[in-house]
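Anyone opening a protein record will find just a pair of labelled lines. With that in mind, the following record should read easily:
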Amino acid sequence: MARHKHSSRHRSAWMQEHLDDPHVKRAKAEGWRSRAVYKLKEIDEKDRLIRPGMQVLELGAAPGGWSQYIAHRLNGRGRIIALDILPMDHVPDVEFMQGDFTEQAVERRLKGVLSGNPCDLVVSDMNPNMSGVKAVDQPGSIYLAELALQLALEVLHFRGIFLVKVLQGEGFDTLMADMKRRFDSVRSRKPQASRSRSREIYLLAKGIRQA
């Protein structure tokens, strides 16, 4: 019973912090679906990720904040394919696919939608099903990033860009080293909109190295 009460108090404290978050309030006021949009916006403004005419693949798209921002930046010139296991309400100018891209049938369907046209940008803001247990969540984050990397390498243009969120910890250095072997440039980004206590960081890779 004590554990249950503690868990309830923890959820209540998290919800209050969430509601008080200035980025949450700003996102609501500006019509974005999530506070995460400001993370992508900051990285985009710093590194010039998104340009009209691009074909963009977004992994872990729900609830759609990043999709909204990418559509806004493309301004009707380009293509966005957004994918998530969870359903997502329609975002104008965004093609949404529901499914798990690690499943062969979903991957085949995705590649059919791409029709052999390489992507200019692949972004992933995916999280594992968070348990609150660091020893479970952190390796799960690295594993998802590795899967996203594998797909990105298959669908990206050789001059393409890959942006992926990971939780720092065991396996992070190995993932970073692997990305440095495969891309011409790899940098880490910690947007101001990321909560200071969060271990999340974004890895930004550009230009697939040619064999």
